[in-house]
Design goal:
Number of helices: 16
Distance between the termini: 38 Å
Structural class: alpha/beta
Largest sheet: 9 strands, mixed
Strand content: 15-25%
Shape: globular
Number of strands: 28
Mean pLDDT: 77
């Protein structure tokens, strides 16, 4: 059963994109976003069918960045499979098989192998349609290796599963990217023209900036040459991943190489040979889209030895799935617990680990922190938000039940959608909204220009750039150390309002945001403060780097130049052509030469008109 999702609005799309851009200078292990256990939330209640597995793209588009997936070892086939029940080779080509276990029935698509899941769903439905500057993101898939369980086979058939739409859509500045093919076409032009305007992105040290590099056109070429159906299911998991996804995968071997290179890997204190690469390096330099790790392994090494996968798939010691960095949400926060979370900013005991963040600094190791709900105690919006404020990735783990399949599907969508919306930690509700401006003159103190973001008690909010607020200034090289400017200023003077070794900045993670929110509320109460985020260059393109920052997706004067310059040039060219035609009549002997000139002039205009940036 396919789920019916609310459409992603233009406001939501802009918010998701700008939140991703804020985290570009955050190391991979410090990024905080909702996660999901695909088996407990979707596959168990809705069945192991193609349509349900295909929900991965919907979830990734809406902000899920980590997925937990069970792979089941079928001893009869000596291979991993997605269906939880053991079956023989005689029915392995069944498109639909029904098993009975635990007083209920389960449907499995047995033709959907792990390799086909990687190729048909992960690659074809999500990676390639979103492999462009606007939508590219990195996800982690954590694999639990379990033995297939026993179940009574009731029936099986070979009908084809229903088709799945491959359409993806997003917009920026009126630009619409729709369908897998058009998305790839836009990705090519956006990557090869990104230098028209670049965003200065802070990398841990605010005194150093870097420009988002132009994405290589070669990164958009198909990374796979082997047919998914030709992958042997008995090959190692790492080999199946390498064959199907190839250069899209960030591997354990690549991390070792990056850690040997200075200033490539980082932790919460700065450059580190034990850290992780920044999201910017992952997406815009290495062109990686996916990371694989192992989770719970319930197989003996003589059945399947994961040592053969060590160069590709990260062990749990590198990317934890449980243990000291994981807490299980069992009850609602009490009033005293909420107080301890908020004052100081955050304090949660996690086994032998501790998250303790105060406004004056931090004692924190925010590396792949996880907090999972249960079927009996599902996350509420407030509880999920509290965990994210403390640097935890909330894992949606609950299994819902309902006798009516349609009601069950609606309940699951509501559970997921509600938590994913509040999981977008950066912007306030219904932000960033685009507000028309009556005056866009930077020199007028009384002007009105709603293209700048302030931090209110509810999150980032689009504000009038000419309003005067105190300014959020971050102490250099200290992500959890913030001060406010001594005087109020408008956004255009915000950079100069910060003094000493502090600079105009913006929280890049929920944990950093918690610290700044604490300082804001203590200093100015409910009032807003300026943060380093604006869309002055291009509407709806939210960038950091102060008032002079330009949009990496489209240069600020592209639209105006097309509306004004191109018609003017066209008129001149037409006038020239008419003059040449007149001369041709008067000077017949030079007609051939003039025709050649006219052709060259038209070609020159056509070449100048196309600059690789779609309208």
């Amino acid at each position: 059963m396919a789920l019916t999702w609310p459409d992603i609005t233009a406001i939501e799309s802009n918010g998701i994109r700008s939140q991703r851009d804020l985290t570009l200078n955050v190391s991979m292990d410090g990024i905080v976003s909702p996660a999901i256990n695909l088996n407990t939330v979707l596959l168990e209640p809705l069945n192991y069918t193609y349509n349900v597995f295909s929900e991965l793209s919907n979830l990734a588009d809406r902000g899920i960045q980590r997925f937990f997936l069970n792979l089941y070892w079928n001893q009869l086939l000596e291979a991993f499979q997605l269906c939880p029940f053991e079956y023989s080779a005689e029915i392995q080509d069944a498109s639909n098989a029904v098993f009975r276990a635990n007083n209920r029935t389960y449907a499995c698509n047995l033709t959907l192998s792990f390799a086909e899941f990687l190729g048909d769903i992960v690659r074809d439905q999500w990676i390639e349609p979103t492999d462009n500057n606007l939508e590219a993101q990195v996800i982690i898939i954590t694999l639990h290796l379990l033995p297939a369980r026993s179940g009574e086979l009731i029936s099986h058939s070979d009908f084809e599963s229903s088709s799945v739409s491959l359409t993806s859509s997003s917009s920026i500045s009126g630009l619409e990217v729709s369908s897998k093919i058009n998305s790839a076409i836009y990705a090519l032009t956006s990557r090869t023209t990104a230098t028209a305007g670049t965003v200065s992105t802070v990398i841990h040290d605010d005194s150093q900036t870097t420009s988002i590099s132009t994405l290589s056109a070669s990164s958009l070429q198909p990374q796979h040459t082997d047919s998914v159906t030709q992958v042997n299911k008995q090959e190692s998991l790492s080999k199946q991943i390498s064959i199907v996804l190839s250069n899209y995968v960030y591997t354990r071997q690549q991390l070792d190489l990056d850690r040997d290179t200075p200033h490539i890997t980082w932790n919460s204190t700065g450059s580190s040979s034990k850290g992780w690469p920044l999201l910017e390096n992952m997406i815009f330099h290495g062109f990686y889209r996916i990371v694989f790790s192992f989770g719970n392994i319930e197989l003996d090494s003589d059945i399947y030895n994961t040592a053969k996968d060590v160069q590709v798939i990260f062990p749990a010691s590198d990317i934890p799935w449980a243990g000291k960095t994981t807490v299980t949400y069992s009850t609602a926060f009490s009033a005293s617990q909420k107080t301890s979370l908020l004052s100081p900013v955050c304090k949660i005991q996690t086994g032998s680990g501790l998250v303790h963040v105060a406004s004056s600094g931090a004692n924190v190791a925010p590396s792949f922190l996880l907090a999972a709900d249960t079927s009996d105690n599902r996350f509420s919006a407030s509880v999920l938000t509290q965990y994210m404020k403390c640097g935890f990735n909330p894992v949606l783990n609950a299994t819902l039940s309902n006798a009516d399949p349609e009601t069950l599907a609606l309940d699951i969508v509501d559970y997921l959608h509600t938590n994913l919306v509040v999981g977008r930690w950066a912007w306030s509700t219904n932000e960033p909204i685009q507000i028309s401006s009556t005056d866009e003159t930077h020199g007028s103190v009384s002007g009105v220009l709603y293209r700048c973001a302030s931090l209110s008690s509810s999150g980032f909010t689009v504000s009038n750039c000419y309003d005067k607020f105190y300014v959020a200034c971050r102490v250099s090289k200290r992500p959890y150390s913030w001060v406010l400017s001594q005087k109020k200023s408008n956004y255009f003077s915000a950079s100069s309002a910060c003094s000493g070794n502090s600079l105009l900045s913006i929280p890049r993670t929920p944990l950093q945001n918690s610290v700044l929110q604490s300082i804001r509320s203590q200093a100015v109460g409910s009032a807003s403060i300026w943060v380093d985020l604006n869309s002055l260059s291009v509407p709806n393109c939210w960038v950091t780097g102060g008032p002079g920052a330009t949009c990496t997706y489209e240069s600020s004067d592209t639209r105006e130049s097309r509306e004004i310059v191109i018609p003017t040039v066209a008129a001149i060219i037409v006038a020239v052509i008419l003059a040449l035609m007149l001369c041709s009549r008067l000077l017949g002997t030079r007609r051939l030469k003039n025709r050649s000139i006219r052709r060259r002039a038209i070609k020159k205009f056509d070449d100048a008109e196309y600059d690789g940036v779609p309208l």
